Amino acid sequence: MTSRFTELVVDCHDPERVAAFWCEVLDFRVIDRSEDKVEIGSWEPTAEEIRSRQMPPTLLFIKVPEGKTVKNRLHLDISPIDTSTATEVTRLLTLGATQTAEGSTWILMTDPEGNEFDVLRTLAPPDPNNEAPGL
Prior knowledge:
Structural class: alpha/beta
Helix content: 10-25%
């Protein structure tokens, strides 16, 4: 007997707004919505696929009345795949993210409702002029 990691749930005030932000960030699409929740993902999950192997989880944004009051105990790490980390951070800022800190290998940001996430080193191939995209 085993289970599968199928969804990561994010509590928020405005599921549509936060889901739209993350769809832009991750190139996901809305796969389900109802009055107080929006689910996004890179694929449309089916029970058969989930039973056969571990698939990428979806993100589920659920409306809650309370606000965020403390640091998240769980957060997403994302890595740019076709640009530098600095360029991706700039793009995320234009989408409504806020930069809050920077380390040697990560940049801490928050989504439009204050949920933390890290932008890590780029996974983009090195520049043909021998300049690595880097952090």
